[in-house]
Design brief:
Family: Belongs to the mTERF family.
Keywords: Transcription, Transcription regulation, Transcription termination, Transit peptide
Oligomer: single chain
GO molecular function, one term: nucleic acid binding
Largest sheet: none
Number of strands: 0
Radius of gyration: 20 Å
Length: 201
């Protein structure tokens, strides 16, 4: 099978067909076009990201892919090289809503203070929910820094990229005595009930 020749195992192909069932009835030429589009994102055959790239480009025309690439360049001020880097690491950006991506990007730049190029090299950060993850963790870090409670210099990317269990263990639980309301405020923020400010006692 052509997809096996591209480095995908049977399990990978099965998962791909579940996520994109129309692929089962596709002609070989259509599948070959998808593979070419995935490679065009800078994702080589045989890499672990290749199956994700195929999901991202499945049934997207070359024109739609080009339009999304153009949108990323104009909206995020990314160079051609930065777009290639971003999509090779996070190809599912092609499937994300333009409005959602823009709101996440604008918050990361204006509120968190990240540079556009920095985000291009860590594009997975744009996958995370703005209300359910990015904002709450941003406010926790700001609170801890303003009150000089952090025992290490956390980068925002590290904080937002870690699992919920890890984040609680490292950024919430150690401060139960110094900031007893922090866990409560963080939980409320994750529910979309952003406190006016994180209290310090």
């Amino acid at each position: 099978m052509f997809l096996q020749e591209c480095g995908l195992g049977g399990c990978d192909i099965a998962k791909l067909c579940v996520s994109a069932p129309r692929m089962l009835g596709n002609k070989l030429e259509s599948v070959q076009a998808m593979v070419a589009h995935a490679e065009g994102l800078g994702v080589p055959r045989g890499s672990g990201m290749f199956k994700i790239a195929l999901q991202a480009v499945a049934f997207l025309s070359e024109e739609k892919i080009a339009a999304k690439v153009d949108y990323l360049k104009k909206t995020f001020s990314w160079s051609d090289a930065e777009v290639v880097v971003a999509l090779s690491m996070a190809p599912m950006l092609l499937k994300r809503s333009k409005d959602i991506l823009q709101r996440r990007f604008e918050f990361l730049v204006s509120e968190v203070g990240l540079e556009s190029g920095y985000i291009a090299h860590r594009p997975v950060i744009l996958y995370y929910s703005l209300e359910g993850r990015i904002k709450p963790r941003c406010h926790v870090l700001k609170f801890l820094k303003e009150n000089r409670l952090l025992d290490r210099d956390w980068s925002f990317y590290t904080a937002v990229n870690r699992s919920e269990k890890y984040f609680m263990k490292k950024c919430i639980c150690p401060y139960k005595e110094a900031a007893p309301h922090l866990a409560e405020d963080y939980a409320a923020a994750c529910r979309g009930e952003m406190p006016s400010n994180f209290r310090f006692t």
